[in-house]
Write a structure and sequence with these properties.
CATH topology of the largest domain: Rossmann fold
Largest sheet: 6 strands, parallel
Strand order of the largest sheet: 2-1-3-6-7-8
Number of strands: 8
Strand content: 5-15%
Number of domains: 2
Structural class: alpha/beta
Order of helices and strands: EHEHEEEHEHEHEHHHHHH
Helix content: 40-55%
Radius of gyration: 18 Å
CATH architecture of the largest domain: 3-Layer(aba) Sandwich
Shape: globular
């Protein structure tokens, strides 16, 4: 079975080299490239076409979230996992709300990190085990009257939300529903607005928590 390809970006030389060796030793991940220079990332992504990008939240004083946003603007659509020492809820919230596919801690065990990478490659949103309770608390404030929020969605929006719950990309949803990519993007924006959420990550969590799964009857009103 082919191993998952990952690029690791971190400004601490010893850490990134050590982590690369640990990931490789687990057998499921191939670290295609490592760098401490965020200006090199786009070129490395084009060269190696990895499955997942592991990106330090703070790269030598440069905001990793801004680096991620710059890569998204260039058309890179792969899962991006932010790696950090920060256990601050507000840092996780900012990362997820700005499109990160996961928030991982540098203190995680190697097997936990590999599992998170594999899950992210499958389209799941992942957070470090130590951050799970904080994620739930962060979302609790936005989870009031879930039934009425769901009822505000159109049938097509509920259908797309169910696909988001499976971690599918906009391109994959467009193919499956035989609609355009831009139409899916528009629906996702409407879904976020109606549910009072800030990112597709939160929408996916909302859908899973409210059992909006692939088996959900998108034609019903509750």
């Amino acid at each position: 079975m082919s191993r998952l390809s990952v690029i690791l970006v971190d400004d601490h030389t010893l850490f990134r080299k050590g982590l690369a060796e640990l990931l490789e030793s687990q057998g499921a991940v191939n670290v295609a490239a490592i760098t401490g220079d965020p200006t090199e990332v786009a070129g490395l992504l084009r060269e190696h076409r990895p499955d997942v990008l592991l990106l330090d939240l703070n790269i030598g004083g440069i905001d990793g979230i801004q680096v991620m946003q710059g890569l998204r603007a260039q058309g890179f659509d792969l899962p991006v996992l932010l790696l950090t020492v920060s256990e601050a809820e507000e840092d996780m919230a900012r990362a997820l709300r700005n499109g990160a596919n996961g928030y991982l801690l540098k203190s995680m065990e190697p097997d936990e990190l590999v599992d998170a990478i594999l899950r992210a490659a499958r389209g799941e949103t992942v957070v470090a085990p130590a951050m799970t309770a904080k994620l739930v608390r962060m979302l609790d404030g936005k989870n009031t009257s879930a039934t009425s929020l769901l009822e505000s969605l159109t049938q097509r929006e509920r259908e797309i939300l169910a696909h988001l719950a499976r971690g599918e990309s906009n391109k994959a949803i467009a193919r499956q529903l035989d609609i355009s990519y831009d139409t899916v993007k528009l629906h996702v924006r409407h879904i976020l607005a109606k549910l009072n959420l800030s990112s597709r990550v939160e929408a996916a969590v909302f859908a899973v928590e409210n059992k909006l799964t692939p088996g959900f009857d998108v034609g019903r009103k509750s």
